[in-house]
Amino acid sequence: MQGIGQLVAALVMMFLTLGFKSSLETAADTKSCTGGCQVSVDKMWRTLIGFGAVPACIALYYRLTIPETPRYTFNVARDVEQADEDVKAYMTGKREGETDEVARAQVHQGAKANLQVPKASFRDFLKHYSEWKNASLLLGTAGSWLCLDVAFYGLSLNNGTILKVIGYSTKNTHSVYEYLYNT
């Protein structure tokens, strides 16, 4: 998804640069970009940041509206009664189960002693990952993400060099528009 985000951001910025072309061509370079040119650049960046906030807002909406799974309710929240009602509701096609709050409190009080699970420690972590099966899974996942991130961020770091090689250099630009369009 990082690559898609970078591509969409570049396309949005290119279209914004094309949209504000008339006001960006008035300035010869970035130092002489005043008045309407500055306002245009300000609007461009605000619009780009706004587009970048859209995926975050969508993710936040779904995170707040999707109900917790019965497994989470049972294992983590330790709410046996609610988990049971959620499973029954799921089987009938409803969104969430509705529990009797009095019965729920009684079950929670009665089961409190049985639901006390010791917290995981660093020793448990070492024991789990000392097994080759678990360690290889962790190393494989972390290694593949590291390689992916190095590729994406490496391309971003060398973006100026790559653009110069393919002919999009900011060296001989005659206006702020050309400067922004070539970067």
Automatic annotation (TrEMBL):
Residues 1-19 form the signal peptide. GO terms for molecular function: transmembrane transporter activity. It is found in: Membrane. InterPro entries: MFS_sugar_transport-like, MFS_trans_sf. Keywords: Membrane, Signal, Transmembrane, Transmembrane helix. SUPFAM superfamilies: MFS general substrate transporter. It is a multi-pass membrane protein. One of its GO terms (cellular component) is membrane. The chain crosses the membrane at residues 43-62. It comes from the Eukaryota. This is Phosphate permease-like protein. It comes from Fusarium tricinctum.
